[in-house]
Write a structure and sequence with these properties.
Blueprint lengths: L1 H50 L16 H20 L20 H21 L8 E4 L2 E4 H25 L12
Antiparallel strand pairs: 1-2
Length: 183
Amino acid sequence: MRIKRSILILTSIMLLSLFVSPLIAQQNDFVNEYLERLENSRKYLILVAETMPENKYGFKATPESLSFAENLMHISWAMDWHSQSLMGGREARDWNTDTELKVDKKSKKEMIATLDKTFEKTIEFITKFDTNKLEDRLDYFDLNRTKRQILLLLADHITHHRAQMLVYMRLNGLIPPRYVLFQ
């Protein structure tokens, strides 16, 4: 009787692993592919930021638009919020008082360093993130989203604001760096 029970338990574990292992592997593949994409996004965005002359960092397409610098720092703010606060549970920074991820009085060099540091922290967070929690759901502006979707939304957000920055470069007669090298 004891041997039959042991065989049943072992067989159950083996069958369960047939289903669980591929799911874990898929989640790890997703995270690895995501991190590669995020690292390429980092390199490209920093190149864009370096290419824009500092005296054009205040440029806005319209009075109500974010400036080039504000778009850059907004990307940092959103990366921090999506990863550290939304996914990680850390209390969100107070937009009205926290100047670490705002333009404030930062030079171009300081903004790029801040952006790079934020990418580094975000990549570190995602690298250590428990992939079993990718399917956890949370409220995202009154929408029910998985943490996997939050990562995708973060990538879209970076692209959205970077695209505005590329247009600003064109409006100032500059040729943006080639994106194809960073896919």
